Amino acid sequence: MQIDDAKAFVDYMSEGQPIHPANILEIVAINQGKSPLTMGEPTAPALGTEEFAELMAEGHLVIDTRAPAAFGSGHIPSAYNFNLASSEFEQRVGWVAPLDAPLLLVLDSRASVAKALHKLAFIGLDQRVKGYLSGGMNAWIGAGKNHQTLRQISVHELNHHLSNGHDMRALDVREPGEWDEGHIEGASSMSFKLLDQRLDEIGISPEEHVSVICAAGIRSSTACSILLRRGFENVNNVTGGMTAWNAADLPKVTD
C-alpha cells in the first residue's frame, strides 16, 4: 500500500493506536529532508498589536505561554494556553495545536521569547512561529483590543456546586491512569490531548457550566482554552487540581 500524503500516512498508521507523537508531521518532514532542522538559536520577530491582529485574521493560531492565573485574568479570544514553565510545554503544543497552522506567541516577558523558541525547536515547532506580541497582553489591552477572562475556582467551590446539585459539570482532563487512581464521582473524563477532536463523545454542550480539573490546574487551563475556542461561555479552571482536592480530603471514587 502506497500513501503519498504525509498526513494521510500518519492517520493510517495511528488508527486505533495511542495519540501520535507531538508535531509528528514536521518530525517526519525533517527526517525525510523535506524540512530543515534548526541548527542555531531560533528567532522570531516582535509584532505590534495591529500586525499581530492581522495575522490572527489570516488564520494564525495564538499560543499564550503564561501561567493559568495570568491567562485567566485576561487573554486574547481563541488563544490556546500552554504554560511555558511546564516541562512538557513543547509536547503539549504539538499534541493540541493543529498540525500545519502558523503560530503566534504571547509571553509574560521578552526574556521568555528565547526560552519558548528553544523548547519548541526540540520538535521542530519553532519554524511555525511567525512572531510574538511585543509588549504582551498589556500592549494588547492598552491598544483597546478585545480580550476575555477565564474564571479560576477552588476545589472547595467546585465541591460546593456539585454537593448542592447546582448546574455544574466536572470534566477531568488527566490521563486514564490518573483517573483510575481516583476521581470526582460523576465527572466526565477526556485527556486534554484528545479533547478538541473528541469533545462530542463526552456529551457536554456549550451552554452548560463546566469546571475543568487536572492534577494541578495547568493542563485544565489548556483544556479550558480549547472549550472557549469551541464556543463554551461558562467555563471554570479548578486551581490546584486533584492535588488540592486530595489535600482537602474531599470525596472521590476509584475504578
Oligomer: single chain
> What's the CATH class of the largest domain, please?
Alpha Beta
Number of H- or I-type helical stretches = 12
- Structural domain count: 2
Mean pLDDT score: 88
What class, by secondary structure content? alpha/beta
Strand content: 5-15%
CATH superfamily of the largest domain: Rhodanese-like domain
Spatial order of strands in the largest sheet: 1-5-4-2-3
H-E string: HHEHEHEHEHEHEHEHEHEHEH
- What share of residues is helical? 25-40%
Total E-strand runs? 10
Radius of gyration: 19 Å
End-to-end separation: 41 Å
**At CATH's second level, what is the architecture of the largest domain?**
3-Layer(aba) Sandwich
Low-confidence parts: 1-18
Largest sheet: 5 strands, parallel
Shape: globular
The third-level CATH topology of the largest domain is Oxidized Rhodanese, domain 1
Q: Would you give an account of this structure?
A:
- It is a single chain.
- Helix 6 links the parallel strand 4 and strand 5 (129-133).
- This protein folds into two domains: 38-142, Oxidized Rhodanese, domain 1 (3-Layer(aba) Sandwich); 151-247, 3-Layer(aba) Sandwich (Oxidized Rhodanese, domain 1).
- 36% of the residues lie in helices and 14% in strands.
- The protein is an alpha/beta fold and 255 residues long.
- The model is unreliable at 1-18 (pLDDT under 50).
- The protein is built from twelve helices and ten strands.
- The strands form two sheets. Strands 1-5-4-2-3 form a five-stranded parallel β-sheet.
- The longest helix has 11 residues, at 219-229.
